[in-house]
Design brief:
This protein is of the alpha+beta class. Helices cover 35% and strands 16% of the residues. The radius of gyration is 15 Å and the shape is globular.
Length: 155
Amino acid sequence: MDYGTYTANLDQEHHCPFCNMNNEKALDETANFYVVLARAPYVKDHILIISKRHVTFLNELTKEEQQEMWELVNTRNTFMQKEHEGTSILLRDTHAKGISWKSIEHLHAHVIPNCRIGTIDGNGQDDRHFFDREEYLALTHDLKNRFEHYKNTKE
């Protein structure tokens, strides 16, 4: 499914897909966050750190939650830098469909292996692909295993 169709369906259904997360989809889970593979990634291994609590803005998190989130971002970013030539960290603190074109109004951070973010061919269309459930779970399993291997060799 293309990303535009997916986000149009979200608008019609009026629900938050991040509030319906479960640990089956998680690469990792803490008391307050899920770490998941992006369902509509910019590139391979693009991950999200998602607050379990439905908040829109960073300042809605407690100081403890903010610390927990940044520790997750830092750990995953360190891993991604070893796997890829660089990373981008994105946190969009705004309403959906606002100036940043954020599609889901639920606070989350992106850790993205180095790539040009935006449309691939410059045509103004968002041509990211939305993974079906089976493909998504297989890719999640692969990335989770690679991170566990990295974590075990680091210790």
